Amino acid sequence: MRDWLTRLPKAELHIHLEGALEPELLFALAQRNGIRLPWADIESLRQAYNYQNLQEFLDLYYLGAQVLRTEQDFYDLTWAYLRKCAEQGVTHTEPFFDPQTHTDRGVPFEVVLAGIQAALADARRQLGISSGLILSFLRHLPEAAAMATLEQALPYRDAFVAVGLDSSEAGFPPRLFERVFARARAEGLPAVAHAGEEGPPAYIWEALELLQVKRIDHGVRAWEDERLIAHLVDNQMPLTVCPLSNVRLKVFSHMGEHTVLDMLDRGLNVSINSDDPAYFGGYVLENFLALQAHLPLTPDQARKLADNSLAAALAPRG
Ligand SMILES: [Zn+2]
Questions:
Q1: Of the candidates 195, 136, 186, 187, the residue with the CA atom closest to the CA atom of residue 163
Q2: Ligand 1 centroid to 313 CA: how many Å?
Q3: What is the DSSP string of 197-261?
Q4: Ligand 1 centroid to 276 CA: how many Å?
Q5: Of 12, 18, 71, 197, which is the active-site residue?
Q6: Does residue 56 have an active-site annotation?
Q7: GO molecular-function annotation terms (predicted)?
Q8: What is the pTM of this model?
Q9: pLDDT tens, 83-118?
Q10: pLDDT tens for each residue of 32-77
Q11: CATH dotted code for 1-312
């Protein structure tokens, strides 16, 4: 089934480019930019990939992102991810990037965007992978900072297919960003948002009703709210589920307990995504393989999950 799963055409709708920074590239960029790292070698960095929750992962993720400085760095990061897509039958991708992770440490917005865009354009030509970039706001920072980031991005409006909301979820409900998302909507930018990963079902309701999102990122905790499940099924709201991430961050204690196939069978519009593949043990294919290894994933279910990902794309495909 591995070869079949590899060839199965699929889209990835929930991937943070900064989370695709593999330890080898992280060390290479640190050397290129003369940055001292707190880890002696690649192996000790890998050993640090052992998190108890979302925040512990994020602390490491932001530390790692500091090696990204130049346009070439962002190109190399994005290109490495796109090569993986090509190997795994991912024909379309809608990656997130977090400008604030870089602008807050002095890397100009334009440098970040230029490197990413050049790689996405090359992938379109050389690898046949279509894409749409999502401008994502860090929810642990104030609303004013998100608004400033949006204003900074608006001159490049056409570079983005949507805006998103990520980073620490608990204690940072979607309602805090209602005005930013209204402003983005007024500019014609649709929205997606992380909700219901660690946060409660109420955050999913807020993302739907206040941010008017077109997709929910994660959304697995919708499973706790019957009325919400019915609403999501009725509206066929896409949920971008990330199984390996959920297990590594202890949203589920084991892959055998993941509810994604139950959600699929219930009629929810779920897809399979990698979230932060370098940090969670794999890309889209490895996520499918993990489901196959620990849950009774049938070929029909796998095909439906892949078809859902393609159908929920916001950017033009192909
Ligand atoms: Zn995510």
A1: 136
A2: 16
A3: SSS-HHHHHHHHHTS--SEEEE-GGGGG-HHHHHHHHHHT-EEEE-HHHHHHTTSSSSGGG--HH
A4: 7
A5: 197
A6: no
A7: adenine deaminase activity; zinc ion binding
A8: 0.97
A9: 999 999 999 999 999 999 999 999 999 999 999 999
A10: 999 999 999 999 999 999 888 888 999 999 999 999 999 999 999 9
A11: 3.20.20.140
